[in-house]
Structure formats: structure tokens, C-alpha cells
Design brief:
Chain lengths: ~850, ~475
């Protein structure tokens, strides 16, 4: 498809001349100075599509005619052209391009981006060009320049077709130029308008019988003539898409060709070229090819067929396109797969990639080419379906799937139903051809490999809930350090909890936070009902549990025999000793037993609080909280004593003494506040987990799919010593009595030493509604705002929640995104991208007391 | 928050003249961070005690500071400043007793020059380094010091001692000297990371040490603690993440290269031997390009830059702080262009594949793998041996068998080490990596090769097949 033709469209008889240029590609205008290239470009293309050398000269030299700046100007021009082509934009170059070297450089840029390039030559009489230049004061060069350019153009014209242009359009004279109209040609690979549904079928390799069985299994009706399958149609109007390698090795390559050719001709199937078709065509053309790898079987079988059929088959195979883009660009089919930057492109190397894969040039111990595992690195949004390399099972890797399950080697013939993404296989009837090497999983790299580029730098993460979330480079940098030094295996790290904003500051006497503000906020947002959940004072924990190690291997790809993990808000394991984590996972999996059938899943992700706080935060409690208590205990009694002695001497220290005594009382309350959350833990003894939400399970992102009361009621059925229950009340926000009862509940909870509660919309809210608001107890806040905070409520009420609230929404959106991607079985890097972004946002400076 | 100074010199009430504060009055002095009060719990002929009490409102303290203050942490509200005899008390003392500290006394001109029997009590002195350090700092200055550590929480005896001591000092010392000792040494003992006083205050503190600091046996520690703590923004980000995860801030500090003390016979430091060994291997294999994976503060990079044969050198670390240190050590911003063009320095993680790691003759993993969780090593192997695939990989890691030679060592050699391997464990890992990724490996000792225990550092040189 890269063949070059010279087309000299229609004579100048006043009729419109249609120039057909590639929809995605490069158009190079060629013509002497004054030939009217800029006017031509302005008439036919959008200003942003046209890059002119004059403009670039101006950019680098402040003077569009400074010829000494030409080298730099063309550097810039090539850079702009290259960038546009990389981004898939049609680009027009407005420069004289009369010299071959100038054109070659542009052809090279087009090739580097695997797009087609056309030339449009504007051939005007020399005199006209000279006259036009004379009317332009900025073009002060003499007529000899135009003459030289014209000589160069004349010399170039005959050979230009061989310079790598797809087409060279020559417009002779003003009449032709004025009469020209541009039309756009779609790439041959562009079938984006076809939306299916499709049945994509892996490498058949002459296994006609298995193909017929597979088609029938899929509901196709096969049309037969003289008992031979010559076509097929699906009653639901499905389209079959063959990934190539119809022929060779198997028992009936002609039969397969006959059936597929019939389907393609009838429009019920599409077929891309495989390397075996390619080689068979060369052999049939009489070219010198090595007859091996099953080619011998096809040649022998075709020799039994009438020459007319052989010729028809040859033409069919020769005309196959190497890849197709389907369904609005969401589906790409190529025999050996295709990396994203090649989708919709056309060049020799794109075709080679599609036919043979990303070969390294080396061969392995079996003499077969070594291929770069491009699927591991694939990050595209389009699903890529391919074959070529036999694999034991068709499995998704980063949104790509190989359907070659080695039917001819005694494996199976596999189809993928699209868009349902259901895999359907029929077993081979026998081993038709002995494999050279055993079937192996695709590629040598672990399919879970994450790349630095997946997480680093300034990023924009698309979320369903909050649109595009921006992550700053320095946030990514901080998260990268934490993630790589401390976090659990990313295959387990499927979610990180978002930060949560407190209720608007309360004006009530003695309170900084109170339930009324939370209720008022949700009411104002139109939320009819909220759930108030007890806020356990422990450490936030996410538990990822698979029912068995086998389920863990199947779903998470973790094959070290572990079946789950429990990690902290920053993705760290709770316990340094893996055996302790394994013990906790075992207990939790046991506790989950009643829920598996209900969830119809053999894995689950739980949002929890791990108790007691001291189990994880022991170091923090001693360093930060107990230390303050110790200093207070050491200093305040002596200060009180000194002041009492001074008072005894008749000095007026009453005010200071009173304040100091109150400080001593506050310090004691503070000490009690942290001590409440300290409990002895030895091994797992004393550790409890309070799950309050089921985040996800097979196929479902329960975080948004089910309302909170559903979660709480299901979790309340867990009856196990490791599980701590979560108390809650449902509040009808329209009912004053209901609200008052909830306030009472909170008051009792916090007066008994509880941390506080979290208020959440009962049914899942969307948009700008906070997913939860915390209302913390008066005594608990001492360990947040300091022992004496109750003395300074006035000042503390000047706190600003805006940033915290915005962060909470963004992190929540990212968390939901991660779980939704997980539930939809999206590639690991897609899940990790969102999880990583939560951690990155957590490094943003926000008042940590909120 | 509280400091008492007593004297038994007769008449003891002369203390009031020396301090310029009348024993019969209660006085207040406003400070930027609170209010200082001076009063006398006792004032007799035989014994007189002055108390300096600092009332600090931590909330006001935070609210009056700039919004962009880097130590934006939880510790600002929940902190010991209202109770402890901290650097803030030193600042208040300097201000309130300015005249006394200068040794002037208009009413009793002879008095300041006379050493007096003094006793000073600080009921809660933050003392990083423990009671021993408090004694080591005050005793050379003529004090008899009693320092008792306060328990962290009497209800949790297993937590042990807090970083606070109750300090009492007795001695015959001139009052001005006593005040200057306190002024300088309180912040030294405090060594707090938050509440830095402005840098000109540091200069003032150093000036107050004139006449005695230069001779002090702990002079280095005293000055180091003043000048040591500077916090970059990158640190603050990590500190925030530590807080989010209920971790102590220090838990996330990037590991710095350091050796355990006490290997008696090592004349040349082990890290020097290690770098020499790595450089030797690079010479041997004739590498022209090398990437130091986990370059830390860039010591190996500095050596690599000295070798003209290496035309392409890269250093990478996951810690931006380490990279900043490396850039500083190498003088990146003033390096000659020809040298600079040989060097790349960038942040990267060893558990994420990275195109920038590819295309080097050799990669160095010097004392790096033991900082990666064992469960994440497979990812590192894939990134280095599977994806980057340099011609050679040089790996060094501690030999845990040798640890018995470090007399004071308990546990592993660095708190961030996730494991340390025996020679057999390292060899088994290396063989498995070779099998999986197509390399061969040779093992070499680094440092004194003990006949029974092997060398302190083991090195594996991997070569791509």
C-alpha cells in the first residue's frame, strides 16, 4: 500500500480537479517562490494544518526572509511536522521544496511517523511568479532566484514519484491550480465505522473442520455447495474477523480459504493478513522461498485444486490488509499484534510488525525468532486482538489478547466475542502438526510489569466521578519513593482510601465539631438519608482477600502461595513479618466464609479499621503523644507548686496559677485520650479488624454499586473473634426527631471515649457531594489539636476546609476509579495509575488536623 | 516551661539585684511565642529562689507563623513546648535576664564577678541523648548535675523512659555564666526539628558561648546540633505521608550509607573498599558506560567521573533527597560542560521498568537489594535483568555471617535493611536470576575475607550470556 504513483489529474478545461490526499498524512507543497503555495494552502486547509518555512524563519530570526536562519528554521519546521504527525494530524508543508534534499527530509519525517506523504506541485510560468514577487516588498530577491528554483523543479519532476511519495499531484498553470479541490482518502486500515458485533477468530492453519465447529458453536449458519462450506452468515448479523494464518500445516487449507473467501466476499467476515498467507503468495508467485513450517502442506493441497481457485485464493491473500481499526478505534486486529503508535498508520515497518511481531533479529534455541514482548509495554486504550504466537490459553494482557491457541498443534481453536469479550474455544480434533517447541505463555516478561512512565511526572488521570484529576510532578516523585520502598506488591495494592473532611466547624459552646453541621450539609445537598457509622480509633486498613491461593493466582497473578494481604493507608504492610500478615489473612478469609456465596466471588476487597491503634502506631504514640504527656507530667506539678509558694508569700499569681492548674487537668485528659487507644498486642492476639465497606469483588465495584446500609448489614453477619462490629444509625434528615436521636447517639459514643463518627449519604451520592464527613468527639480532638485546645476554641474555629474537601473528592474519585477498573478486569497499570495518584495527592500540604 | 534558680549565698535576696527582678514583684514579659513570668517562690536571707515560667499557647504559636512554613505537621499543635524547658525557654531567658547575662549590676557592682552557690532546676528538659549527655554537657562547666529520666507513661512501664529529664545543677558559678550555659545548652539538648529559631538567633547563641564553648569537650556535638537541621520541601512531603500512615517521620528517611561501628581490624573503611572493588570490576570488563542504580549521595558517581574511559555515566535513586545530596556532592551546577555531558542523574525506582536504564555496558547495584522487600525482589530482577539487560550487573550486599564481627551490632546493619544474606543465600538467589534471565555470575569477596565467615561484603558479577 505504499506504492507510489504519479497521477496527473485532469486537464485545465475549467472542470474541477480532485486531488485525493491521505486523511492522516503529510502533504508537501512544491513550487517556486511566487507560485501561490500559501494562497493555495490557505484556500484548502485550516491555518493550523499548514506549517510554512517563512513562518518558522520568523520564529527563529524575527525575519521571515532571513535566509541565514534557514537551517534553524527547518529544524523547527521538522519538529512541528513530526509532533503533529505523531499526534495523528494531517499536516501541510508550505515551502518551496524544489530541491530533492528538502523533500527527502520531509519524506523521512513522514516515514518516522509511519504516515503516507503526498506532494502537490504548483507549476506556474516563471514570469507570473516573478511578477507576483515584485508586488511583495518583503521579497526583494531578483528574478534569478525564481529562475534557479524553476530549473531545480524541472529537473526534479520526472523523478519525484520515486522519492517516497504515495502520489505526486501536478497542477499545471493557474487554471488547474484554481480549479483544484481536495478530497480525503481514508487509510485502508480504517474501518472504524464498523461497530460489530464481532466474532474474532484465532489462527486456523487449515483446520477446516474445527473452524466449522467453532462457527456453529458461535451460532453461525454455514452455507454449503456440494457438501463444501463456501460461506457463513450469523442470524444476528455478526461479523467474523480472522486474525490471519488461515493456511499451512493443517489438513485443509484450501477448504478454509474457500469458506473465509466466501464470507469476506459476502461481507460477513473480515480477514487480516498473516505471515503464512504472505509467504504462500510469494511461493505461488514463483518467488524463491524456503518451503518449511507447513508451507509444504498448503502447496501440496492447492496442487489438487483447479487453477482458477488457486488464482482466486492467491489474489485474495495478496489483497489482505495487515491491520484493521474497528468500532470507532476501540478495537484493533492484526495478525501479530500492533503497538499503539502504529494503529492506523501505514509503512513497511507497520506491516512487518503486524505480520511478524516485534522481532529482535535474534533466534531462540528452537531456531524461531525472538520477539519483544510488546504487549507487556502496551498502554493503549484500543483492545488489540491478534494471533501468531501459540499460547495455552487466550488471556488479556494490558488490553491485548492472543487468540492463537495452537489448534493445528492439538490445542484449540479460539474465538473472542466482541464487545462481550467472551472467549469461546473448541478443541482440536487431533494433533495435525508436531509443534517445534512447547506452547508457552506470551512473552518472557511478567505481564504485571509496571513502567516508570505509568506513574511518574505530571499526570492527568481520567476518572468517571470527577473528570480529569491532575497530579503534580513533585507529588508523583514523593509517591514513587514511598511506593517503591515500602508498599506491598502492586498486584495486591488495588485501592488506597481517600482522605476525609471533617464537618464544618461548629459554633456550639465547647465544640469544634458537632453532628448538626454534617446533617445540615447533606440536607442542603439534597441527600434525604444518611448513615452514621462509628469511627473506630485504630489504623485504616485495606484487606484484599482471596478464598484460596489458587484464586489469588488466577485473579491477582500472585503465585507465591499467599492468598491476600492487609495494608495501611499508604500501602505499607501492617506487619514487618510476612507470617503475621499471612496469619491475619487466614483469619479474615475464615471470617468471610458466610459471605462468599452471597458475593458470588472468590475474592474481596474490604475497607476496615485495624484495632487497636497502638498495634501500628505504637512508635507514633510513644514519640508524639506520650512524650508530650511525660513533659506535662514532669513540669506542671512543679510549676503549680512554685506558684503556690509564691502565692503563699502574698504575691499576686492567682491568674497564672489558675491557668496552670487547668493546664494540668487538660494534660491529664489528653493522656487519657491517647491511652484509651492503647492495648497490648502480641502476635495477632489483641488485633481486631472492623470492616465497614466491601469495596469490590468479582465483576463489581461495590463501593458505588451498593448503598451503605447494604454493606453494613452484610458485614454484620461476620461472626468471628477477629472481627470488630461497626455500630451505626440511619438518619432521616427530614425528621427532627431522627436527627436529634443521632446527635444523642454521637454524644453517648464520644462521651464513652469513642473517636466519633462518619456521616455518609445512605445511597451512593454523585457529583460534588462529599462521600463522607467525620464528626470527631470533644476529648478525641485533644490528641489532634493539643491538650489545651478547649481553651482556644475561638481561634481554632478559624479553620479552612476548602482544600481538604476538594482533596477528599479527588481522592475518592481516584479510589472509585481504581476499584471500577479492578472490577472490570482492566490491566494492572490502569488500576495502579489511580492508586498511585491517591498516594501522590496525599503528599499535598493540607492542615493535618482536619 | 519552668526554670528555677536558687542561691544560699547570704543575703540570698541579692539574687534579685543580680537578676534585675525584684523578689516582691511578679513580672510579665511578652515574647513572640508566649509570655514569660518571673516570680520568687521563696525569698529569705538564707535561701532565695527565682522562677522563670514560660506560658506558651501552641495554637497561637502556629497561627502567628507564616502559612508556607515547611514544618506543616501535626506535631505543631500536639507538642511539648508548653511544658518542656526547650529552646524557647532559652530565648525567653536571654531576653528577660539580658542585663544579668551580660554580667552587669548597677546596685551591687561587685556581685556579678563572684561565683555564688547556685542550684538550678529544670523539671522537664528535653534531652536527646539521655541523662548522660546532660551531665556530659554541664559537668565540664563546673556543675554537679543530677539528671533523672522521666518515664514516658507510668501506666505503661514497658514503654520505658521519655526523652525528658529532670535536671538539677549545683555549683559555685557566676550567675552570668550560669545563664549563658543554659542559653546555649538548652537548645542543644532539645535538638528539636520543629520550632527553629531564625538563623541570626543561631549566631547569637554561638556568641553566648564565648569563653567556654571553644574548650568544651563536646564542642563538636554542640555546634553540629545547631547547624545540622535543615529541611527541604521534599522532606516535608515525605513527612506528610508518614503522618498519613501513622508512622513516625523518621521511619521514611532515605537510608544513608553508613557502616556499623566496631569491626576492629578494618583500617580502610568498608565503603571505600567496596567502591574500589566495583571500580576494579568495571576496569576489568572494560565498561564504557555504567549506571549506578540506587546511587544514594553519589560517592561512587564521583569516582566514576574521574575515569575518562567511562563516557556515559548515570546515577539514579528513588529518593529525591538523595539525588539532591548527590548533585551537591558532585557540584552539578558548576561542573564543566564536558564532564557534565557524561553524567545523567535522575529519579527512578527499581520496581518499575524504565527505558532510561537500558543501553549501558554495566549496571551497579551497590548495597541496594537489601533495601528492597524480599517479596519485591522479583520486580527488581525483572526491571534490571529482564528489561534493562545491561552486559554486566555488579551486585554487592552484606554477608550476614560476618555480622558477629561487629561487636556492638544487634540485628541488621542498617534499620532500613529488609534482609541480609549468608553467602549461600546470595549464591542461590544469583543462580536463580542467571537461570531466569540468561546471565552467568562470579562471586568475589570485598574486605577482609574471614576463613570461616567470609568477607563483610559479598559481590556478584553477572554477565549476560
Amino acid at each position: 500500500m505504499s506504492e507510489t504513483t504519479v497521477s496527473e489529474e485532469g486537464p485545465a478545461d475549467g472542470r474541477e480537479t480532485r486531488l485525493s490526499v491521505p486523511e492522516l498524512g503529510l502533504v508537501v507543497l512544491v513550487g517556486v517562490s511566487g507560485s501561490g503555495k500559501s494562497s493555495f494552502a490557505a484556500r484548502h486547509f485550516a491555518p493550523t494544518q499548514v506549517v510554512s518555512s517563512d513562518f518558522c524563519r520568523g520564529l527563529v530570526a524575527d525575519d521571515e526572509n532571513d535566509q541565514s536562519a534557514s537551517a534553524d528554521a527547518f529544524d523547527v519546521l521538522h519538529y512541528i511536522v513530526g509532533t503533529r504527525l505523531r499526534r495523528g494530524l494531517l499536516t501541510v508543508v508550505d515551502a518551496t521544496n524544489v530541491q530533492q534534499a528538502a523533500r527527502r527530509a520531509l519524506v523521512d519525517v513522514a516515514r518516522a511517523h509511519d504516515v503516507l506523504v503526498d506532494a502537490i506541485v504548483l507549476d506556474v510560468p516563471e514570469q507570473l511568479a516573478v511578477e507576483r514577487n515584485a508586488t511583495r516588498p518583503d521579497r526583494d530577491f531578483g528574478s534569478h532566484v525564481v529562475a534557479r528554483q524553476r530549473r531545480e523543479l524541472r529537473r526534479s519532476l520526472p523523478r519525484m514519484a520515486k522519492e517516497g511519495f504515495r502520489r505526486v499531484h501536478v497542477l499545471r498553470g493557474v487554471g488547474e491550480i484554481d480549479a483544484a479541490a481536495i478530497s480525503y482518502e481514508k487509510a485502508w486500515s480504517d474501518l472504524r465505522h464498523l461497530t460489530g458485533p464481532f466474532d474474532l477468530i484465532g489462527d486456523v492453519h487449515g483446520c477446516r473442520s474445527e473452524l466449522e465447529t467453532l462457527l456453529e458453536t458461535l451460532g453461525w449458519r454455514i452455507e454449503r455447495v456440494d457438501g463444501r462450506a463456501v460461506g457463513a452468515a450469523h442470524p444476528e448479523g455478526r461479523t467474523a474477523v480472522f486474525v490471519g494464518d488461515l493456511v499451512d500445516r493443517g489438513p485443509d487449507s484450501p477448504g478454509v480459504l474457500r469458506l473465509v473467501m466466501g464470507m469476506v466476499a459476502a461481507g460477513t467476515a473480515l480477514c487480516v493478513a498473516g505471515n503464512h498467507e504472505q509467504k504462500l503468495v510469494r511461493a505461488l508467485d514463483g518467488r524463491k522461498v524456503k518451503v518449511a513450517h507447513g508451507l509444504e502442506t498448503s502447496l501440496a493441497q492447492l496442487a489438487q485444486e483447479p487453477p482458477g481457485f488457486v488464482e482466486e485464493a492467491r489474489r485474495f491473500m495478496d489483497g489482505l490488509i495487515s491491520h484493521y481499526r474497528l468500532d470507532g478505534g476501540k478495537l484493533v486486529v492484526a495478525h501479530a499484534g500492533l503497538k499503539e503508535s502504529y494503529h492506523g498508520r501505514a509503512s513497511g515497518r507497520v506491516r512487518a510488525f503486524a505480520l511478524y511481531g516485534d522481532t529482535t533479529g535474534e533466534t531462540d534455541e528452537y531456531g524461531l525468532p525472538v520477539r519483544h514482548p510488546w504487549a507487556t509495554d502496551y498502554r493503549g486504550r484500543a483492545a488489540v486482538v491478534y494471533g501468531h504466537t501459540p499460547v495455552p490459553r487466550a488471556e488479556w494482557i494490558n488490553n491485548t489478547i492472543c487468540l492463537d491457541t495452537g489448534c493445528v498443534f492439538g490445542g484449540s481453536l479460539t474465538a473472542l466475542r466482541y464487545p462481550a469479550k467472551e472467549v469461546v474455544s473448541v478443541p482440536a480434533e487431533r494433533v495435525w502438526y508436531e509443534p517445534v517447541k512447547p506452547l508457552a505463555a506470551p512473552g518472557r516478561s511478567d505481564p504485571s510489569a509496571l513502567a516508570h512512565g505509568d506513574v511518574a511526572g505530571t499526570r492527568y488521570v481520567e476518572t468517571r466521578l470527577a473528570g480529569r484529576v491532575k497530579i503534580l510532578e513533585e507529588q508523583s516523585a514523593a509517591a514513587l519513593e514511598i511506593m517503591s520502598r515500602f508498599a506491598v506488591d502492586p498486584r495486591w495494592l488495588v485501592y488506597l482510601p481517600p482522605t476525609m473532611a471533617p464537618a464544618e466547624t461548629s459554633g456550639l459552646d465547647g465544640h469544634l465539631e458537632h453532628p448538626l453541621e454534617a446533617f445540615a450539609e447533606f440536607r442542603a445537598a439534597g441527600v434525604p438519608e444518611v448513615v452514621c457509622e462509628e469511627k473506630h480509633m485504630g489504623s485504616r486498613a485495606v484487606a484484599v482477600l482471596a478464598r484460596t491461593p489458587e484464586a489469588a493466582a488466577a485473579r491477582f497473578g500472585v503465585q507465591d502461595g499467599t492468598s491476600g494481604t492487609v495494608y495501611t493507608r499508604t500501602g505499607r504492610p501492617f506487619f514487618a513479618d510476612p507470617a503475621r500478615t499471612a496469619g491475619l489473612v487466614a483469619l479474615l478469609t475464615e471470617a468471610m466464609e458466610p459471605l462468599w456465596p452471597e458475593l458470588r466471588s472468590d475474592w474481596v476487597v474490604l475497607d476496615c479499621e485495624l484495632l487497636p491503634w497502638s498495634a501500628k502506631a505504637g512508635g507514633l504514640i510513644r514519640e508524639q503523644y506520650a512524650s508530650v504527656g511525660a513533659a506535662a507530667r514532669g513540669a506542671l506539678p512543679e510549676a503549680v507548686a512554685a506558684l503556690e509558694a509564691a502565692a503563699g508569700r502574698g504575691l499576686d499569681v492567682a491568674g497564672l496559677l489558675g491557668r496552670t492548674r487547668r493546664r494540668a487537668e487538660n494534660a491529664a485528659l489528653f493522656r487519657d485520650a491517647y491511652a484509651r487507644y492503647v492495648a497490648p498486642v502480641s502476635g495477632l492476639d489483641g488485633v481486631r479488624l472492623a470492616p465497614f465497606q466491601i469495596l469490590a469483588c468479582e465483576g463489581r465495584a461495590l463501593i458505588t454499586d451498593e448503598p451503605h446500609p447494604w454493606h453494613l448489614s452484610l458485614l454484620s453477619r461476620l461472626d468471628h473473634e477477629i472481627i470488630a462490629p461497626t455500630r451505626s444509625v440511619l438518619v432521616d434528615l427530614e425528621s427532627g426527631a431522627s436527627r436529634a436521636a443521632a446527635v444523642e447517639w454521637w454524644t453517648a459514643l464520644t462521651e464513652a471515649g469513642g473517636e466519633g463518627m462518619v456521616v455518609k449519604p445512605a445511597a451512593y451520592g454523585t457529583g460534588r457531594v462529599q462521600p463522607g464527613i467525620k464528626v470527631r468527639g470533644r476529648e478525641y480532638l485533644r490528641i489532634v489539636y493539643g491538650p489545651d485546645y478547649t481553651e482556644s476554641l475561638g481561634e481554632l474555629r478559624r479553620r479552612f476546609l476548602g482544600k481538604k474537601r476538594s482533596l477528599a473528592l479527588r481522592e475518592h474519585a481516584l479510589g472509585v476509579e481504581a476499584l471500577t477498573r479492578l472490577a472490570a478486569a482492566e490491566p494492572l497499570w490502569r488500576v495502579h495509575e489511580a492508586v498511585f495518584a491517591v498516594l501522590a495527592l496525599e503528599s499535598e500540604p493540607v492542615d493535618p488536623r482536619l | 516551661m519552668l526554670l528555677t534558680i536558687s542561691t544560699t549565698a547570704r543575703p540570698a535576696t541579692d539574687l534579685g539585684y543580680l537578676l534585675h527582678k525584684h523578689p516582691g514583684r511578679v513580672q510579665e514579659f511578652g515574647q513572640s511565642f508566649g509570655t514569660a513570668h518571673v516570680f520568687y517562690p521563696e525569698a529569705g536571707e538564707d535561701r532565695c529562689t527565682a522562677a522563670l515560667m514560660l506560658e506558651i499557647d501552641p495554637i497561637r504559636l502556629v497561627r502567628t507563623r507564616g502559612k508556607s512554613s515547611p514544618d506543616f505537621s501535626l506535631g505543631q499543635y500536639v507538642n511539648d513546648r508548653p511544658y518542656a524547658a526547650s529552646s524557647l525557654l532559652a530565648v525567653a531567658l536571654a531576653d528577660v535576664f539580658r542585663t544579668a547575662r551580660a554580667g552587669r549590676c548597677a546596685a551591687r557592682p561587685g556581685l556579678p564577678a563572684v561565683p555564688l552557690p547556685l542550684s538550678i532546676t529544670l523539671p522537664a528538659l528535653p534531652c536527646r541523648g539521655g541523662p548522660g549527655l546532660a551531665r556530659a554537657l554541664f559537668e565540664p562547666l563546673g556543675w554537679r548535675a543530677r539528671a533523672e529520666a522521666l518515664p514516658l507513661d507510668p501506666a505503661f512501664p514497658e514503654w520505658g523512659e521519655s526523652r525528658y529529664v529532670r535536671l538539677t545543677l549545683h555549683g559555685e558559678v557566676r550567675l552570668a555564666d550560669a545563664l549563658n550555659h543554659l542559653y546555649v545548652l538548652l537548645p542543644v539538648l532539645d535538638d528539636a526539628k520543629h520550632y527553629w529559631i531564625a538563623h541570626d538567633e543561631v549566631d547569637k547563641l554561638i556568641r553566648a558561648g564565648e569563653g567556654w564553648l571553644a574548650e568544651h569537650p563536646e564542642r563538636d556535638l554542640i555546634t553540629r546540633r545547631y547547624l545540622g537541621r535543615r529541611w527541604s520541601l521534599a522532606r516535608a512531603a515525605l513527612a506528610r505521608l508518614a503522618e498519613v500512615g501513622d508512622d513516625v517521620e523518621e521511619a521514611l528517611e532515605p537510608p544513608v550509607e553508613e557502616e556499623p561501628e566496631g569491626a576492629a581490624e578494618s583500617r580502610v573503611p568498608l565503603n571505600t573498599l567496596r567502591r574500589e572493588a566495583v571500580l576494579g570490576v568495571l576496569d576489568e570488563i572494560g565498561a564504557h558506560s555504567v549506571i549506578d542504580l540506587g546511587c544514594g549521595s553519589g560517592r561512587l558517581l564521583a569516582d566514576l567521573l574521574k575515569r575518562p574511559a567511562l563516557t556515559r555515566i548515570a546515577g539514579t535513586d528513588v529518593s529525591t533527597r538523595a539525588l539532591t545530596m548527590a548533585a551537591g556532592r558532585l557540584g552539578l551546577d558548576r561542573m564543566a560542560e564536558s564532564r557534565r555531558s557524561r553524567l545523567e542523574l535522575f529519579q527512578g525506582a527499581l520496581t518499575y521498568t524504565d527505558d532510561r536504564y537500558a543501553g549501558f555496558d554495566a549496571a551497579v547495584l551497590m548495597e541496594v537489594i537489601e533495601h528492597v522487600d524480599a517479596s519485591r525482589l522479583a520486580a527488581l530482577e525483572r526491571v534490571v535483568f529482564g528489561a534493562a539487560r545491561p552486559g554486566h550487573v555488579i551486585v554487592t550486599t552484606p554477608n550476614v555471617e560476618y555480622n558477629v564481627r561487629y561487636e556492638t551490632l544487634t540485628g541488621l546493619r542498617h534499620p532500613d535493611h529488609r534482609f541480609e544474606w549468608t553467602r549461600a543465600e546470595f549464591a542461590a538467589w544469583a543462580d536463580a536470576v542467571c537461570d531466569r534471565y540468561g546471565y552467568t555470575v562470579g562471586h568475589r569477596p570485598v574486605g577482609d575475607d574471614d576463613p570461616e565467615l567470609g568477607p563483610p561484603t559479598q559481590m556478584g558479577v553477572f554477565t549476560r550470556v
